Inverse folding.
């Protein structure tokens, strides 16, 4: 099966927006055993859009299209597909009713422009959008089945999952069989070192495919497998997974595709323990990550983002002496921050960060990228100092936050 | 001039890597007055690569190609371009000498595979790479001039700047002229309503192009303009900008492409004021956003993420009575949270959030999506209640955080 992706929209065409949808779609199709051979992007231009629909219709069997389903004038995907297919746009009553329901449920009035979103090319199958106003549609043009989805990532992802992936098997040219994907999430190796650790995989497991995906600051190692006998395939995948885990060791934090905060949260929940956080250089990112997990209120009690030294002293009780003699970015300060927030919150565990995210504030002795991370529990309080060579402020915040959570993850494992 | 971009490589094709190069190149070309009409991507496959070189050669005047210039077997750009152009690869002595120099300067030995990087298609012009081993090349195939650059972003950027942009004016089909882009950032209108507010733009300003970009939860409205007379163009763009601002009103928070936190931060800095935050349902996101701005330590003093009710009482001094009688999600609680964090930090301004991000915790009376936002300054303390119809936890956190910052932005404007 020849599969392609078409991203539409002037934002992507003109470079105003980086197209992350296409990579996501290619990855999901790859997991489902469909190799994407080509990505395309054109802007909000009716003639160019219609032309590329015709072009892809001639050479591919499957194409996932994103964008251009919104209510505004420059949302042209439906119109272009209709033009390419030589059909007209028709009002889809079910789509209209669903858009109306979307607005009613939110006590908002549907505007006239939203009506346009219910116009689908004649003969196209509506693809429901449970979390937005724009329904998608599936439509054959020439030899190719086009799945047109919204460009808004959460809506696109949901519809790809619910509406596109289940239909792949019934497309002409679909190869029968089963596929498996295993995701091993690691933190602590740079991509090149991770690559070296798993070198030799393809000689050892020639029937499997290995992929490294950098999702800064974590590295995901993926096994893609495809075969006809599910039992045999599972055995092979399991063997490969064990080999990879032996190569990566304790730098693996999940084999189920979880985020670091989900792993830490589950571990806290399982042991009935609670957590508090004192953040300086990470500026709230650890708390934000932790509270992205639904149900985190069961273990996450309190975080203090003490950016100012005075706040470190007054809120957390860090001693003036410590900050004066050793500075804010110091193991002792990190320890006192962790102890302080644990005392204040009554939590079982506390972590703290104090460091220099940049771009300003670095010195010869403590350059940008330096961070001290503290951990306090009823058993002990300690801190560690790290240096990361990333120049960028946001990258530093992420790598500092990840390191703190990883330190906690290992501590929780130890105390089990 | 018809311009395109071609990204090559299996990492991008398979979705292992998001292609940010193409957006960068499109943006730089757009600034230089060259509109990119199409992006393409294929993997490391000689036949597919050669075919797309031929295809683009027929329809475009200019194409910037990235990737496939490295030393390994699957780096095929030179070979594919030679095949498409019907020429052979020849050793470029200057390129070879430059690669040798690169290794000598680093006290490393050039490997045999690096020799391959000096093989260029016959008739191609070498493009020097001052910071890496892979030289690029420029080559005409059919009507199109291809500029082939490395995929490594810093090398690509440097060579685009030094080797490609200066050559644009001499290409056939180059249009003389200047271009302008204006970004109006708004918060508070859904995309469809924003679209309706600016309807009529293209009739009023037929020579300009308008684009709406949803960057949840903000909506950016962009003017793209191109002309020959800079003075006339600036006048037209200014007129269009004024008209748009009159249509969007106070929902505009920036006309310079700034984020909400940059606008709030600048406003605080300009008036020498400081800020503290008490977050419940936003879980640290407001603090994270604020501290993403370099230099935010000048005005951001402290944030308390008080997830537990006990923390609201003990850390912020919210009265037990208030929480007991009115609940945690209440205007009174939000007011006491804002007052409490302002007292604790000594900041001039304080904002607070308490609400239900979901998916659990909603009731008939206070459904998921309800939030109370408090604001406290020396002049007054008040809170407002909002309801947002987004089901998703992360979307709710973002829209709650944005609403709190927008409330502060308006208050700061008022107090000026």
């Amino acid at each position: 099966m020849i599969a392609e992706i078409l991203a539409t929209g002037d934002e992507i065409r003109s470079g105003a927006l980086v197209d992350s949808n296409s990579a996501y779609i290619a990855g999901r199709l790859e997991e489902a055993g469909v190799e994407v051979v080509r990505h395309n992007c054109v802007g909000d231009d009716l003639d160019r859009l219609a032309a590329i629909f015709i072009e892809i219709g001639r050479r591919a069997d499957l194409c996932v299209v994103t964008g251009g389903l919104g209510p505004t004038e420059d949302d042209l995907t439906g119109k272009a597909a209709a033009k390419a297919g030589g059909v007209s746009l028709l009002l889809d009553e079910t789509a209209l009713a669903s858009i109306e329901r979307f607005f009613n449920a939110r006590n908002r009035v549907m505007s006239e422009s939203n009506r346009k979103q219910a116009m689908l090319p004649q003969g196209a199958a509506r693809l429901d959008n449970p979390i937005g106003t724009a329904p998608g549609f599936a439509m054959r043009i020439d030899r190719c089945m086009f799945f047109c989805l919204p460009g808004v990532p959460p809506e696109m992802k949901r519809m790809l999952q619910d509406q596109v992936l289940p239909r792949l098997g019934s497309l002409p040219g679909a190869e029968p069989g089963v596929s498996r994907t295993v995701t091993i999430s690691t933190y602590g190796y740079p991509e090149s070192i991770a690559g070296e650790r798993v070198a030799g995989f393809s000689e050892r497991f020639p029937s499997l495919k290995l992929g490294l995906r950098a999702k800064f600051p974590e590295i995901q190692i993926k096994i893609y497998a495809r075969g006809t006998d599910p039992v045999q395939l599972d055995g092979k995948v399991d063997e490969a997974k064990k080999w990879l885990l032996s190569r990566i060791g304790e730098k693996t934090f999940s084999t189920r595709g979880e985020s670091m905060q989900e792993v830490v949260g589950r571990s806290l929940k399982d042991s009935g323990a609670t957590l508090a956080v004192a953040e300086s250089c990470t500026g709230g990112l650890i708390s934000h990550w932790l509270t992205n997990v639904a149900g985190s209120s069961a273990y996450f009690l309190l975080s203090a983002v003490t950016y100012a030294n005075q706040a470190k002293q007054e809120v957390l009780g860090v001693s003036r002496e410590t900050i004066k003699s050793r500075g804010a970015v110091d193991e002792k300060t990190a320890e006192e921050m962790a102890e302080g927030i644990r005392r204040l919150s009554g939590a079982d565990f506390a972590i703290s960060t104090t460091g220099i995210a940049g771009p300003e504030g670095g010195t010869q002795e403590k350059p940008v990228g330096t961070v001290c991370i503290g951990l306090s529990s009823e058993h002990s309080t300690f801190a560690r100092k790290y240096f990361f060579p990333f120049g960028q402020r946001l990258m530093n915040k992420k790598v500092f936050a990840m390191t703190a959570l990883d330190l906690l993850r290992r501590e929780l494992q130890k105390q089990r």
